[in-house]
Amino acid sequence: DPSIVMACALGRLTPKNTQFFLCDMQEKFRTSIRFFPQITQACARLVDAGRIMGVPLVVTEQYPKALGSTVSELRIDHAAINQPKTMFSMATPEVSDYIQKQPDFRNAVLFGIETHVCVLQTCLDLLARGVQVHVVADACSSRSAVDRKFAYERMRQAGAFVTTTESILFQLLGDSKHPQFKEVQKLIMEPLPDCGLTGDQA
Length: 202
Description:
6 strands, 6-stranded parallel sheet
């Protein structure tokens, strides 16, 4: 179907063809990641809006025994899978098995930390599987501004879409007549705080 091919090429998002991927937003990183409070707010908007719109959530935690659980600000009780891991990519055997059982899955909305390590490697693994990847720039960060900046470039070069929290949510809504529009709108009434993506801080 040519329309499906075009939708894939353009990265068209619908709640049915999309899954949210929350990467390693854990307690131990709270003091070392640049703009951690700001990206936590962005991640929370995505997670909460995903719950409202019925977008499945995939969560991973990097070696949680040492690095702690996902931060308490993020309500992830509705996650389809919450997988501990030691590899950097989220595409663990367990997550890969889950993905293979989702027949409508076309788009991964990817956010978390660190941009140049786990997020980047997840992005490349998903692209290699033919998934369209949408990296949410204002919901990802690293310890280093340079690493973060060039990770976005690397992922864009590989074929990912680099976008923002609000853009993702409005794409998924599609219409102000969407039955969950008012509920999601409440989440985004206040602009997100600056997270270092403008000027020289990116």
